[in-house]
Design brief:
Blueprint lengths: L2 H7 L8 H14 L4 H10 L7 H16 L7 H15 L1 H14 L6 H11 L2 H15 L7 H13 L4 H11 L5 H5 L8 H14 L10 H6 L1 H18 L3
Length: 244
């Protein structure tokens, strides 16, 4: 069985209930041929208060579908981004199944408020930050973050309980402007050198891949992108200011 199926077989954690569970409930059975044993396992062991890898992927795909529909068109570049992300982190078979699930989700009405509330109540902050990072990657897959996409992502960010500063920080990783490096570190350009150093240490700790280690090695690797953006922003500011 493909790895994606094993995630479901390992349980969806809290995602098996609430709006996310309801959205996927009717799709999981049709997703896997001859998967009766898989469904028995998921039903028997799937619910817990923990965020499992399977539950995280379900949350990611539901929010991804919402963002992809925000500009009233679904582009091949966006689907390709999702598949590339999945292939890189989970392998070809998992990516194919994820895209199949996503295509089904695109035909559904998704209760964004309820989904965000469920995620906020059950998922830790670092994992929610990683979701936001991925959603911006989807939005810019066609080279431009549409105003509707940006508005929905900001709405989702707030719905998941993320701070405006964290939203602006991750947005700056994808939509650069003159203050991008400072926004990534969540400081103003007038910050002192010491404040820059303190901000870097704080952000490096916040975005460290180990913060999502409970989701498994795959997502820990995926989270490395945020961490690298923080490091790059700090290096740019150091070079600009001559900080040693």
């Amino acid at each position: 069985m493909a790895k994606f199926g094993k995630w479901l077989g390992g349980g969806l954690g809290w995602a098996v209930g609430g709006p996310i569970g309801a959205i996927f409930g009717f799709m999981i059975g049709s997703m896997f041929d001859g998967s009766s044993e898989l469904m028995k396992t998921t039903t028997r062991t799937g619910y817990s208060g923990q965020t499992t890898t399977g539950g995280y992927v379900m949350s990611l795909l539901v929010l991804t579908a919402s963002v992809m529909k925000a500009d009233s068109k679904v582009l091949k570049s966006e689907l390709d981004y999702v598949k590339k992300f999945m292939v890189h982190n989970f392998g070809e078979a998992s990516a194919t199944e994820a895209v199949r699930l996503l295509r089904d989700l695109l035909d559904q009405n998704i209760p964004v408020d309820e989904v965000c509330r469920q995620i906020k109540q059950n998922m830790n902050y670092s994992a929610r930050l990683q979701l936001l990072h991925f959603l911006f990657g989807i939005a810019i897959a066609d080279g431009l973050v549409d105003a509707n996409e940006r508005g929905l992502i900001e709405y989702i960010s707030r719905g998941m309980g993320l701070t405006d500063k964290d939203f602006e920080s991750i947005q700056a990783m994808f939509v650069p402007n003159t203050d991008t490096d400072y926004k990534i570190l969540e400081i103003e350009p007038v910050a002192t050198d010491e404040e820059v150093k303190k901000a870097y240490r704080r952000m490096a700790m916040k975005f460290h891949p180990d913060k999502v280690s409970h989701l498994g090695e795959d997502f820990q690797k995926a989270a490395n992108g945020k961490f690298q953006s923080v490091n790059k922003a700090y290096e740019n500011i150091k070079k600009e200011r001559g900080i040693v």
